[in-house]
Amino acid sequence: MKKQGKFRVLVINPGSTSTKVAVFDDETQIFSKTLRHSTEELAPYPDIASQYPFREKVILQSLAEAEIDLKSLDAVVGRGGLLYPLEGGTYEVNEIMLQHLRQGVQGQHASNLGGILAKSIADDAGGIPAFIVDPVVVDEMEPVAKLSGHPLLPRRSIFHALNQKAVARQAAEKLGKKYEEVNLIVAHMGGGISVGAHKKGRVVDVNNALNGDGPFAPERSGGLPAGDLVKLCFSGKYSQDEIMKMLRGAGGMVAYLGTNDLREAKKRIAQGDDFAKLVVEAMAYQVAKEIGLLATVLKGEVDAIALTGGLAYDEDFVNMIKERTQWIAPIYVFPGEAEMEALAQGALRVLRGEEKPKQYTGKKPE
Predict the structure, then answer these.
(1) Contact assessment for residue 27 and residue 88, using Cβ atoms and an 8 Å cutoff
(2) What are φ and ψ of residue 311, in 5° steps?
(3) Do 8-138+340-359 and 161-336 agree at the fold level?
(4) Residue 351: how many CB atoms within 10 A of its CB?
(5) CA 130, CA 94: separation in Å to the nearest integer?
(6) So what's the architecture of 161-336 in CATH?
(7) Does domain 8-138+340-359 have CATH number 3.30.420.40?
(8) d(C-alpha 5, C-alpha 8), whole Å
(9) End-to-end alpha carbon distance in the chain
(10) What is the pLDDT of residues 119-175, one digit of tens each?
(11) Hey, which residues does 23 pair with through a beta bridge?
(12) Distance between CA 297 and CA 328 in Å, rounded?
């Protein structure tokens, strides 16, 4: 897949009511657009998978308007969806992957469209490669990390793999080494928070950032006292859906303060709201505690800690974490989440021959 000159990559990142598209010439972004989809436009489609012809049409229209010829592309990369667990890396979109994305084998999610759209447009462009990179179902956890305490409730790897892996590579670069040569702890801090132990290129332990354990976040409860949670479930006051909403979407900071916006919480703190101050401090405290836990996973051999995600823009929040963890290792801060760039870089590593593309086998977890 090597060639002389620049590689041009189309990146597609589908969301529930939008589709982000970008075109990169090597690392330089030459086109970017967020295509918004109204409720009325999506209403005729019974499920996520059936939206793909509509979304493909608007993507192709936007590229035509920008005078970007499909024949000028070298690859198309889409955001990975809810497939069966796989190790991190860049994967070619194959038939079993397409089948599982359409079926929604691990659930229906807009990101399932990423691989489907990438493959269809890549075929339209003359059969160029179509990829996905580091979907949320990346699972590199060591067996010892998967035991929770009961065989019916194994710990699962669901986290911000795309951004964590991209940031880990940036941190390794700052250390003058390759990702596969270092031990890192990466904390992605957004609406959900995931903290992962990266051991020589593999995320050997990480909290389930969707609806499981770990720190509480702006919208998620994180780990809760198990016995009290069981009592709440059987109290007769709440349905299963209501309990699940408490865990993700209406848990964490928003449950305490009624807002999922750290900036709003900071305004209240500035106005003398001591409870808002306590909640924000507790959220930072739990992130720091999780980093400390993972330092033991790496046996204290931590080359660096990386803080990323939207909350990493807040210097006060970052400093609260630094105060408790800077003794462990140097700390690097990478605010936000450059998902489009991370997807493009995953494709570029394969196009340049730096990595071989992986094949999704569709193996169902035991």
Answers:
(1) no
(2) -65, -20
(3) yes
(4) 23
(5) 9
(6) 2-Layer Sandwich (3.30)
(7) yes
(8) 10
(9) 35
(10) 999 999 999 999 999 998 999 999 999 999 999 999 999 899 999 999 999 999 999
(11) 10, 31
(12) 13
